[in-house]
Amino acid sequence: MRRKSLVNALVLLTVSVIVLICCAAICEAKWPKTSSDGQKTNSKLKVDVGNSSEGYFMAAVTSKNKHKMKLRVEKGGETLTYDLNSSGKFEVFPFQLGSGKYEISLWENVSGKKFSAAGKISVNVKLKREDGAFLYPNQYVNYGKNDPVVGMSLKVCRDKEGKDAYAAIKKYITENFRYDYVKAATIKPSILPDIETCFTKKTGVCQDLSAVMVAMLRVQGIPARLVIGYADKIYHAWVVCEVNGKKVLFDPTAAVSKSKNAANYSVERYY
């Protein structure tokens, strides 16, 4: 009986250590959450800026409708435009333009290609860290706590951090994914990256591959951007992350297709 008790104790200790290791790894990942006192409403627009210092906000329409909605985010002369769902459910968006005053406005499709202003909210953002927006999931880099991509990030980066974690994720992407030429030839404009399908099928276009890698990096607490712009003269998406204080550019599409990186990468926007 004494020996059995000792064995059980050792098993329990082992399990506890494993749980602690996993918890430590998961703690690197950051997850958006609603706030109790940061929600603002104007006309048909509702936003939650209670966690703006972390680098993100949430937006939704005040009530479900059938119209197409656009969300416009402006700061210092720069403008980013998103499609916003009409379900009334919050979506997460980054304050990727740094600290300062943002204007968040909602535009409703009223007929044809005509949109009408449907709400506007201003917010002064003071970020805790200027790269905070690149540590959380958002509409373009969309993943959840229980998604397989999160579990794989924890698996391939076990006992690794910084440049070693980056190297492990880079290796995993390069060795396990391929470029989807069929999707590339048929994809429609304004389609968001699809992390779930890309991860499951191990194939996707440039924005899918980049979003998967960015998600895996963010889970490890590595600030990472999904960048969209031009690789030479081709409209493209790639990854820029910060590893041990240095910005690193990685092109998953070039890596999985065993081709050379573009000579020049020109940034249009990033998430």
How much of the sequence lies in strands comes to 25-35%
Task: Give the helices and strands as they follow along the chain.
Answer: HEEEEEEEEHHEHHEHEEEHE
Spans of 5+ residues with little confidence (pLDDT < 50)? 6-26
The N- to C-terminal Cα distance equals: 59 Å
CATH architecture of the largest domain: Roll
Strand order of the largest sheet: 1-2-3-6
Counting DSSP E segments of at least 2 residues, the number of strands comes to: 14
Structural class: alpha+beta
Rounded mean pLDDT score: 91
Largest sheet: 4 strands, antiparallel
Q: How many structural domains does the protein architecture include?
A: 2
Report the C-alpha radius of gyration, rounded: 21 Å
| Number of helical regions | 7
General form: globular
How does this model look, in words?
Helices cover 30% and strands 33% of the residues. The chain contains seven helices and 14 strands. The chain has a four-stranded antiparallel sheet with strand order 1-2-3-6, with no helix packed on it. Helix 2 (148-156) packs across helix 6 (206-219), helix 3 packs antiparallel against helix 6 and helix 5 crosses helix 6.
